[in-house]
Design a protein that fits this description.
This protein is mainly beta and about 210 residues long. The protein has four helices and 14 strands. The strands form four sheets. An eight-stranded antiparallel beta sheet has the order 8-7-6-11-12-13-14-10. Strand 7 and strand 8 (about 75-80) form a beta hairpin. The longest helix has 9 residues, at about 95-105. It is globular, with a radius of gyration of 22 Å.
Length: about 210
């Protein structure tokens, strides 16, 4: 249960080691003291209160009629509009749907960083499935691009309902985050609720399409 450790303070090493442990845990602490920087980095991607969001844009390049922009017009009041005016719906949108949707952005995490992926550059050159842009009240911008992930041996679903081979992993996406400085893997289980369409704010919301 004990692991030897030496304390270092301001570059000076202590004169004697200590035996350390975690109460209730049997085993060495060495595996907990890894030095891979990416393993220590926060995986929080979106962590917003509704009132912190100035505007939010969700774009689907392959299905533009689903794309939309949410903008704050006053405290806890928002407008919803299509990215392209030709897809505007005349029915009134529902503020309660907008507020609920914005609340989804309070706790969104990536699954893992994948910056060492050998085909990262090739994926980044393809057309994204979805682009999400959050603009905060201080005008700082948080952009995320989601890309389809090809089916691999690790994919849980290999075949569709008719027994045909699946082309894409329906449980995961690749993601470009932090102004394209990082490449990551995200789960549909986490991101699915963000993948709404413009119509969902006018009528009963439906689940995001995989």
């Amino acid at each position: 249960e004990g692991t030897y450790m030496l304390l270092e303070d301001n570059g000076e090493t202590a004169s004697r080691p200590h035996i350390t442990y975690v109460p209730g845990v049997k085993g060495y602490l060495t595996p907990r003291c890894f030095t891979d920087e990416e393993m220590w980095r926060t995986r929080v991607l979106f962590n917003y209160k509704r009132e912190e969001i100035k505007s939010l844009t969700v774009e689907y390049p392959a299905d533009e009629k689903k794309s939309f922009i949410i903008s704050e017009i006053s405290n806890d009041s928002f407008t919803v509009s299509p990215v392209k005016e030709e897809f505007k719906i005349q029915d009134a949108y529902q503020q309660k749907f907008v507020r609920q949707y914005l609340d989804f952005y309070a706790s969104i995490y990536i699954e893992a960083f994948n910056n060492d992926y050998s085909k990262k550059d090739s994926v980044m050159k393809t057309v994204p499935y979805c682009n999400i842009t959050v603009t905060e009240k201080d005008n700082s911008v948080n952009r995320v691009k989601l890309f389809y992930m090809p089916v691999s041996k690790r994919s849980k679903t290999q075949f569709d309902e008719k027994g045909n081979d699946m082309t894409y992993d329906i449980d995961h996406y690749y993601a470009s985050v932090h102004d394209e400085k990082d490449f990551a893997i995200v789960q549909y289980y986490v991101f699915g609720k963000l993948l709404r369409g413009y119509r969902d704010f006018h009528f009963k919301p439906t689940a995001g399409t995989k």
